[in-house]
């Protein structure tokens, strides 16, 4: 018989599955897995293991001072000092704008996407129609306008699918994504510097492209996954 398993360290719970056998490779890599006699043996630091310890209080940051260091047409950049709950003072920067909207236009069993070149990433991207809010503009109103301007469709009904922060680590941009159904054609009104191609995709194509990782735009991935996850919102509205 082999040696008995080592005793658990004080303050740590033992693994709930089986006694652990630690190999040299398991020690060198915290997520290493070895197989002995068809049994999976985990390292003591398997991802998801809970190590009890003192509970930390919630840290809330408060601006002490900040100033605009860049003021552009689309966003501003603020920088300044913030105080933590424990009294420490740290430097913070954030990108600020009024947020934006995106629309999932559903016509029958097809989604109407747009293809346009994005110079920031140097690529043609397939995206949901979208746009920036202006001040405290109602996001549903902005979504309806963007749908008409970019796709040439008016929505009979708009349903909010989700609201999220694009990148909360450094920006305050909040996005609202709407499902648009009951579409009727209107003349498109793209902005003078926009070159947009409308691309209809059937729902099965959308699912296949999501599964294959063929969308690169975050709001588009989020909006399309929300659409497919909530068929009760649209399954009875197919024209």
Radius of gyration: 25 Å
Kindly provide the name of the CATH class of the largest domain. Alpha Beta
Number of domains: 3
What is the share of helical residues?
A: 10-25%
> Could you report the average pLDDT, rounded to the nearest whole number?
82
CA-based shape: globular
Task: Summarize the helices and strands and which ones pair or pack.
Elements: H1 24-28, E1 33-36, E2 39-42, E3 62-71, E4 76-83, E5 89-96, E6 100-107, E7 110-118, E8 123-127, E9 130-132, H2 139-151, E10 153-154, E11 157-165, E12 174-181, E13 184-185, E14 197-202, H3 203-211, H4 218-229
Parallel strand pairs: 6-12
Antiparallel strand pairs: 1-2, 3-4, 4-5, 6-7, 6-9, 7-8, 7-14, 10-13, 11-12
Report what the structure shows.
The protein has 239 residues and is an alpha+beta fold. It folds into 3 domains: 15-50, no CATH class; 62-96; 100-234, Alpha-Beta Complex (Nucleoside Triphosphate Pyrophosphohydrolase), CATH 3.90.79.10. The protein is 16% helix and 36% strand. Strands 6, 7, 8, 9, 11, 12 and 14 form a 7-stranded mixed beta sheet that branches. Helix 3 packs across helix 4 (218-229).
Quick description:
The protein is an alpha+beta fold and 239 residues long.
Task: List its salient traits.
single chain, 239 residues, alpha+beta, Nucleoside Triphosphate Pyrophosphohydrolase, 3 domains, 7-stranded mixed sheet, 3-stranded antiparallel sheet, 4 helices, 14 strands, globular, disordered N terminus
